[in-house]
Design brief:
Blueprint lengths: L2 E8 L3 H11 L4 H10 L5 H18 L10 E19 L5 E17 L7 H15 L13 H13 L1
Antiparallel strand pairs: 1-3, 2-3
Length: 161
């Protein structure tokens, strides 16, 4: 189930805000929050706050589910142009140059990712949910392969013995 959050009339140019939006598009929510926390761009704190709002909206729609188990990702994020404030700056010889103070609207949609049946990710997701229900931790299987360096030392040791 998806959740939507909108941020309107942000006094930043859309071009600057799109740089941050492109950074987090398609990412998992936890990774996106980590990226936005340490991003130096001026739009990052605003998008981080918007993402937290979308999380709260999702939590309100799905009260019985936990955020950690939902496998949430940013399904869609887009930045539209808002209104422009037009101002004049004094220029030489009595002229005036127009200044456009731009704003933007940001729309963020998060959704839970469901893996297709038969894929490895679906199998691990099913194992995680099964272990969460039973309360038993399932350790991943270790491969029985040995590195070639270990094989060569074992064969030389057997040959000398």
């Amino acid at each position: 189930m998806e959740a939507v959050a909108k941020l309107r009339n942000v006094p930043t140019s859309p071009r600057k805000m799109r740089l941050v939006a492109n950074l987090v598009r398609g990412q998992k929510v936890t990774r996106a929050l980590g990226l936005l926390k340490f991003e130096t761009n001026s739009g990052a704190p605003k998008i981080e706050k918007l993402l937290l709002s979308a999380l709260a909206n999702w939590q309100q729609k799905n009260e019985d589910e936990r955020i950690e188990d939902a496998n949430l990702y940013i399904k869609e994020i887009f930045v539209d142009e808002g209104r422009q404030l037009k101002r004049l700056r004094p220029a030489p010889q009595g002229r005036g140059h127009r200044i456009r103070k731009r704003s933007n609207h940001v729309t963020l949609i998060i959704d839970s990712k469901v893996e297709p049946l038969g894929s490895k990710a679906a199998a691990t997701q099913a194992a995680e949910t099964k272990s969460a229900e039973t309360g038993v931790d399932v350790a991943p299987k270790k491969s029985a392969r040995r590195s070639s360096a270990k094989k060569s030392t074992e064969t030389t040791a057997e040959a000398t013995a």
